[in-house]
Amino acid sequence: MHIFANPTRFLSIARPLTPWLFWGGVALVAVALVQGLFFAPEDYLQGDLVRNMYVHVPAAWLGMAGWSGILVASIMQLVWRHPLAGIAARAIAAPGALFTALCLLTGSIWGRPAWGTWWVWDGRLTSMLILLFLYFGFMALASASDERASISRIAAIFGVVGAINIPIIRYSVVWWNSLHQAPSISLAGSTIDGSMLWPLFGSALGFTLIFAAIVLMRMRGIIADIRIEARLRRMAEA
Amino acid sequence: MKAKHQRLTLAILAVIAVIGAGFLALYGLRDNAALFRTPSEIAAAPVPVGQAFRLGGMVADGSIEHLPDGVTIRFLVEDETASLPVLYSGITPDLFQENSGVVAEGALNAGGIFVAETILAKHDENYMPPELAERNLGGEASQ
């Protein structure tokens, strides 16, 4: 990981990688969504409602994966003071919050016809809403300090403590009885039929590539901002 | 430097307090975080008449009957060991059907019948096309 300790070396890899990740992700999402929305079979109980999962499940996965990324970056900031850790954590927060909100929104739209309610305070829905608020809190904490190149110790600690919510989200439907269904995909296999599972995997992978591209773009933007500020300061002193 | 150490100590104490509070909340919510109670839990710990709670379980096979008034339905909510009759007047969600999960909000009346004000359908983790469901489930669950 310390290969990337030099931002210039990081940029030399991130710059050419970004368009591949982004356009590869867009292409994969397009194919998977056309397949999922038009060609995959309808569900025996839900009918066409099932097609919501091709957006809802990747959004939920990325909302949780985003905070896992913040956790790793926060630990790298606290323990090794890695120069890119704070930048990465800042870059992840906004798209993570966006996908978490998308997950809550699509879930609510699905819940009205399927369950008969827009919202219910069960373990899964509530812990996912808390994740969205944690993202807002992290963004506020990270932008509270003037230091742009890293996040404050408080923000990093918040990133670590907030991660306690991730296993709660995952196991909320197993530990507590809830309205949300139990997980369909586990290490033991899947209770989603193959004809629906492959578009779901394609969509999840595609959105993940887009997410990674957004994070790299935001990291490059933050690094550029820092350099501009440093140059302006030097010019002012000269 | 001294102020910095003070802030650090405060931050660490705060983190310990937050984690402690989190675990206490988790422990306290073990029973209360459940969205609903099952018929066997009601049988083991009866709920007073008129007290609102959520009842969850499976809609028993062949138990949905439409009452003569045209808007009220009566059905049995069951789990592995117990069952409870439910009365409900209104429109049910799309996924409400026999052999499928349900969460009902309401209260017990004097006759031991659960009078529901709201019916929520609980979906399970199985997703499959209709042809496959007909083969797997013998056609009973397909609409």
From TrEMBL, chain A:
List UniProt keywords, sorted A-Z: Cell inner membrane, Cell membrane, Cytochrome c-type biogenesis, Membrane, Transmembrane, Transmembrane helix, Transport
Which gene produces this protein? ccsA
GO annotation terms (biological process): cytochrome complex assembly
UniProt lists the family membership as follows: Belongs to the CcmC/CycZ/HelC family.
In alphabetical order, the GO MF annotations are: heme binding; heme transmembrane transporter activity
What is its membrane topology? Multi-pass membrane protein
Q: Which residues form the Cytochrome c assembly protein domain?
A: 7-180
Q: What protein name applies here? A: Heme exporter protein C
Q: What does this protein do?
A: Required for the export of heme to the periplasm for the biogenesis of c-type cytochromes.
* One Gene Ontology CC term in the entry: plasma membrane
Compartments, as annotated in UniProt:
Cell inner membrane; Membrane
* Entry's transmembrane regions: 20-40, 60-80, 92-111, 123-142, 154-176, 196-217
InterPro entries listed in its UniProt record: Cyt_c_assembly (IPR002541), Cyt_c_biogenesis_CcmC (IPR003557), Cyt_c_biogenesis_CcsA/CcmC (IPR045062)
UniProtKB/TrEMBL annotation, chain B:
Q: Which UniProt keywords apply?
A: Cell membrane, Cytochrome c-type biogenesis, Heme, Iron, Membrane, Metal-binding, Signal-anchor, Transmembrane, Transmembrane helix
Principal place of residence: membrane
User: How does this chain sit within the bilayer?
Assistant: Single-pass type II membrane protein
- Give the SUPFAM superfamilies listed for this entry: Heme chaperone CcmE (SSF82093)
Q: Which residues lie on this side of the membrane: Cytoplasmic?
A: 1-7
Q: Name one GO molecular function term.
A: heme binding
Give the Gene3D superfamilies listed for this entry. Answer: Nucleic acid-binding proteins
Q: Which family does it belong to?
A: Belongs to the CcmE/CycJ family.
What's the name of the protein? Cytochrome c-type biogenesis protein CcmE
Q: What is the source species?
A: Parasphingopyxis marina
UniProt gene name: ccmE
